[in-house]
Records
---
Amino acid sequence: MQFLEVNHLKKYFATQKAVDDISFGINKGSIFGLLGPNGAGKTTLIRMITGIFYADEGTISLEGKKFDPTKDVGQIGYMPEERGLYKKMKIGEQAVYLAQLKGLSRKDAMEKVKQWFIKFEMQSWWNKKVEDLSKGMGQKLQFVTTVLHEPKLIILDEPFSGLDPVNSNLIKDEIFALSRKGSTIIFSTHRMEQVEEICNHIILVNKGMKILDGSVSEIRQQFKENLYQVGLEQDEEAIASETFDLIGKKNMDLFIRIKTGFSTNDVLQFFIEKKLNIRSFQELLPSLNDIFIKLVEGTPLSRQFQNTNA
Amino acid sequence: MNKIWLVMQREYLTRVRKRSFLLTTILVPLVIIGFYAAIIAISLSGSTTSRNVAIIDKDGLFGDSVEKSKDDNWNYSFIDRQDLDSYIDKYEKNGFSSVLFIPPLNIDSPGGILVHSHAALSLSEKIKIESVINRAIEKKRMIAAHIDPSQYKAISSDVSVENPVDSQNGVKKSIAGVAYAISFVAGILIYMILLIYGTMVMRGVMEEKVNRIAEVIVSSVKPFQLMMGKIIGIGAVGLTQFIIWILLMFVLQLLLPLIFPSLVHQVAAQSGQQANMLHEVLAGIGGLPIGLIIFSFFFYFLGGYLLYASLFAAIGSAVSEDQQEAQQLTLPIIMPVILGFVIMTKAVNDPNNGLAIFGSLFPLTSPIVMMGRIAYSPPAWQIILSMVLLILGFLFFTWLTAKIYRTGILMYGKKASWKEMIKWAFRK
């Protein structure tokens, strides 16, 4: 049994199929990446998981039980992409209020808010108003209010936008810590390098449908195109072999695609026979970014590949 | 339920703690009382100023004395053997504020009468002088027509009708004037409440949308709970404000004589006529169903507010950031309020008119119109039906608007059209 199971979820709006038969499961304590271009249906999907929307069809179960929005909201912490706080309200009060709405008693809420404020060095903010905060500070506060009530399921939509690297890392460490403590995290973003770094498992959604599901390394393996980078010790102009196509060259580094029917050893053989010293030889796995763009745009991987990895 | 309470608390506390709340709550009654005091002071002082008027009567219109009306406290003096031209320079030195010149008159079409003064006469002063002249001319005409003026006076009549109201509790004194005033004030108050607090709800909802907090909140609270919490919280702010106002007015009314002692003397010094009027007013108030009026006021205040607040909340949820968009969309909601106000002004004059009865039953206008009728003790079945319909209307509109609200608060970007909002409302 997985922590969260989504089965054949559908939500049709008048003009479009926002979510069209999506199923997936998330293990407890894992960090799950929900990827997709703008308008793919991610937000609708998340809103159904958080109980804001009801699904037209399909089921959601949390820890094996059918998801009940009224009862289970206390188990969920959701930081939407369109996020905000009451500008005129004092920060401390606001955090306590949001925690109370999640079902904490006033006393517990106060305690928790204080703990988190100390952890993030925000104690002096208590009586300030949100309108006095910078965007990044507001973001930190938003994160605190999302995880304050120790939810079992945390859903973060673009949590790093607007944060500087220091605060980004602070939040990232916190996400790892929460995951270690057993919280399950759904992470929705367009920033692929963060997904590669943080997520164990991803799905890619496009036009309301799931088009990819698996762990990050599995997916990269699945989409590899036999691309290799060969580092030579000297600049060599004319290189042609029946074992590979040369698709790019930068100084003394060659980018090649091994032709079907040949192995890496055949390629190495070729260089050895040519008496070219090899400085390095490595496989190039496509980045999630490339896979994302390829799947979503349907463009060939190699074209993008040169730009990003050369 | 617990969450509605939390939301309500927040809405209430953040508003009540604002400086502007304190300011309006305290300033409004002060301004009203000050206004009130100024009006009384002005009207009292206006009627007591006396003026000396010189009359150069070339026609002999007045004979040897000016016949004044009862409340005319001016002094008229005849200046003989003087020409207007030569006297114009002198009358002020002689202690007159103005000089009235009557040329020889053709009694059938009198003309050429002048009043010279250094300061322009006010309208009421002009009317006063004209009435003095008219009276003299009428007298002359009566004599010319062989009517004895004293006989005419004996014939002419000026009655006042009393209207005892028959109710279960026996015959009551006439209440028309007082009922009119109370109905009108109550109707206007409800009208203002609906608009002021309704807009406050709308702005609150827009604030949540603009600040992008709506989605954060609805992930822990149902949209309906958020909407109801907000409506009830702001309603409580309104009630608090009203209670403070009533208390403050009461205290200030007690304090007013201490602040303006001269006012009391003046009132006391007024002729018996005003005392009579006061007596009549008090008797009229005694004849009114006061308990029913106060109960109805709070009932229609709450009922009307709740109904309209949910409509305003729906509008607030449908617009994005633009105030102007909100104004366009509120128009269809403000229209029934204004319609109610118009029917109310009719109902206070003619409380049992068909339109007034309809208006006092129809939930969108009943809070205003029924307050305009309530002092006239409308039939019990109409009051009960009106209240039941208002409650049903409130439930219906809340159910309807909750659906618009639920969709609206999560929509960003373009403004929703009425067509879309209706679609949201009737979608399952």
Note: Chain A touches chain B at residues 14, 47, 50-52, 69-70, 73-74, 76, 78-80, 82-89, 97-98, 100-103, 142, 145 (CB under 8 Å).
---
Amino acid sequence: MKANVSEFYKKHFLGLSALFVLGNTVITAPKTNADQFNFLGFLVAGIISLAVYFLVYLLPFNRITAVMGCLLALFCIGDAGISFIRFIHNNLLPETKPFFIVLPFILVLTFIAFKTNEMLFKFSVVSFLPVVAVILFFFFATLKDFNIKNIFIYELPNLEVFYKQTLPYIKSIALPSALLAFFSKTSGFKKGVSVSGFAIGFVLLGITILNSVLLFGIEFSGVLDYPYSSAGSTVTFGNLFTRMDGFLYFVYLASCIVKCGVGIFAIKKSRNKFVP
Amino acid sequence: MKKISIIIVLLLFLCGCDKTQPEYLISSMGFDYSGGKYIACFEAVVINSENTDQTVKLLKGEGSSIKEAVSVIKKKCTQPLLMSHCGVIAVSENMPPQYFKEVCDFCYNKEEITLSAFFIKTSNPQELLSIKPLSSVCVGYDIMGLIKQNPHFENRFFEVINSGYKARLPKITQKDGGLYFEG
């Protein structure tokens, strides 16, 4: 029965993995202190993330790994949740009391917690294509304003500089990839499905980072709180269609819900090791 | 599955605007510095879904800082100011560079103002924004149309910031009721 479920939800899990990778990084990268080697750091973090994924997937599912899974899940839920709430408070509803922003988010997570993971799979597969369409749309819509020199590297980085540019992506991609591996294994999905989804999500995330950097340059992108949202706001059609970045809020919402949802279901799976 | 699909599609439309009560949509802004005072003027289109007629108003404020000048404008309005659709920011050509940077910093800190807004210079922003629009509902959008026909300027907000606030801004003047590039 379990093998049938994982076979049936293969495409769903592919979408879930891609959205999970986007997570809360999609709108915040590149972060402060980003320099010309930032994208290089992103690529290296991707390789590290894959290594972490395969390593965690090999581990047996026992009480120790269940505790590790729980801790990782709490980290991912906290990171994505706080980031999303901060974004809503700073960007969309600055005059609303934080309690009224936190409450709906908590209610959504509680709703997810009381459902089966099939609901998250269905949400992922339905959101995935619109997210891809939105990311590609904004990339091509801002193409005419790109300055290709913004990604040129004129010298090789030293280790310290390289480490500083890779570290933010270790936290936002490599650590969560361990949780993805844990969830993938405990849900009965083969490595190939989630690795494919991870790769798609990684490419999409790379496109969003390039979108900001090619448009604004790396230094200005690093200064902005939400570079991708700012990049999206430069897309205009006529005089009144000037806030197209609203579509990017959907991308952020979907990817944060998926990241938190994976964390919640990973905790539920881990709980089974301790509660009969 | 159907319910989730419907919810997803509805979520895509969350970026829409609520126009059930009248709002002042700021289409363009003008800033000047003269006699030790900042002068801010906003061209506002009053929008209301219950009334299809659109009124354009020029709102002006003065103060010892840009924030104070804008506060004066806000106090004059009973409705909130919607700056998220501001397309043009006109600065006086005589404005010293340090004050121009202050204008940019003010606009940057106003998260609503997009980085795609066009910066222009003119001899008198208030005069420019008070002329009668020719082809659209407000002068700001006329200016945007003129700039888009001449795309060789790098005068969008993010381009101005990237240039270190030294971007060459197009000068727009009004003559015989029309708008022209000068120089």
Note: Chain A has a mean pLDDT of 90.
